[in-house]
């Protein structure tokens, strides 16, 4: 199955993506993760994207589209994939349409207030684990023990910018995919597992 996860920053795309990988075994393609790993490794792409990400701005379409197109050509994507954080603009969606045909676009709908609280309380580990200060008070990762950190773009100003960018540039994708008959909107619940049940009920119809 070829699917896209759509939703505002903090909607829980990454969390649901991990559960989808476990259940269906399809490759998880996260542009945000790809960019962050390039930054950590100090690659040319990493140097280029860093300033955009820190400010909460989108990385230019050209670079983003190139990275995803290359990834989609790899063997493991032949039978399906899940895109998380891509597309995020109409030109990206058009480029994706040229590259492949999708089975569904899952739109995770969460209110602005909830998202704002989630992002400001988010704590990350370099192993990929994500926590929230309201439910996890330790400074170290429960999975690997490393010290948790706050992403540069999880500070107040970049968060505001990211939500603004989402509304202006990404939200139009909702009607873009609705018109194509691909959009499946689910209203996110507080409980991760409840949200996943909703996701699963959609994905099970695609197998
Ligand atoms: P979140 O969904 O919480 O904002 P991501 O990890 O998906 O986090 O993205 C982090 C940042 O990476 C974005 O704010 C943006 O700067 C950059 N980025 C990720 N995906 C894209 C994309 N498809 N197009 C442009 N920039 C992107
Ligand atoms: Zn960890």
Give the helix/strand class. alpha/beta
How far apart are the termini? 7 Å
Shape: globular
Count of DSSP strands? 7
Beta-strand proportion: 5-15%
Uncertain parts: none
Radius of gyration: 16 Å
Rounded mean pLDDT score: 94
Give the fraction of residues assigned to helices.
40-55%
Widest sheet: strand ordering: 2-3-1-4-7
CATH topology: Rossmann fold
What hetero molecules are bound to the protein chains?
adenosine-5'-diphosphate, zinc ion
- Give the name of the CATH architecture: 3-Layer(aba) Sandwich
* CATH uppermost class: Alpha Beta
What does the main sheet amount to? 5 strands, parallel
Question: CATH superfamily, please?
Answer: P-loop containing nucleotide triphosphate hydrolases
What's the SSE pattern? EHEHHHEHEHEEHHEH
How many H/I helices? Answer: 9
Structurally, the number of domains stands at 1
Report a brief summary of the structure:
This protein has 207 residues and is α/β, with parallel strands linked by helices. It contains nine helices and seven strands; from the N terminus they run E-H-E-H-H-H-E-H-E-H-E-E-H-H-E-H.
């Amino acid at each position: 199955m070829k699917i896209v996860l759509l939703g505002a920053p903090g909607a829980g795309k990454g969390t649901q993506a991990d559960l989808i990988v476990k259940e269906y075994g399809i490759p998880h393609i996260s542009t945000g993760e790809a960019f962050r790993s390039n930054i950590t490794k100090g690659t040319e792409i990493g140097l280029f994207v860093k300033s955009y990400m820190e400010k909460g701005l989108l990385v230019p379409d050209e670079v983003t589209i190139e990275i995803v197109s290359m990834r989609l050509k790899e063997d493991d994507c032949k039978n399906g994939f899940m895109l998380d954080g891509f597309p995020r603009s109409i030109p990206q969606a058009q480029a994706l349409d040229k590259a492949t045909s999708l089975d569904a676009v899952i739109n995770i709908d969460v209110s602005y207030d909830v998202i704002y609280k989630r992002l400001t309380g988010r704590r990350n580990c370099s192993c990929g684990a994500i926590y929230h200060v309201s439910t996890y008070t330790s400074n170290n990762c429960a999975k690997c023990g490393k010290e948790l950190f706050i992403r540069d773009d999880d500070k107040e100003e970049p968060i505001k910018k990211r939500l603004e960018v989402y509304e202006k540039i990404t939200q139009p994708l909702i009607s873009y995919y609705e018109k194509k008959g691909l959009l499946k909107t689910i209203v996110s619940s507080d409980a991760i597992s409840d949200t996943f049940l909703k996701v699963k009920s959609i994905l099970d119809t695609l197998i």
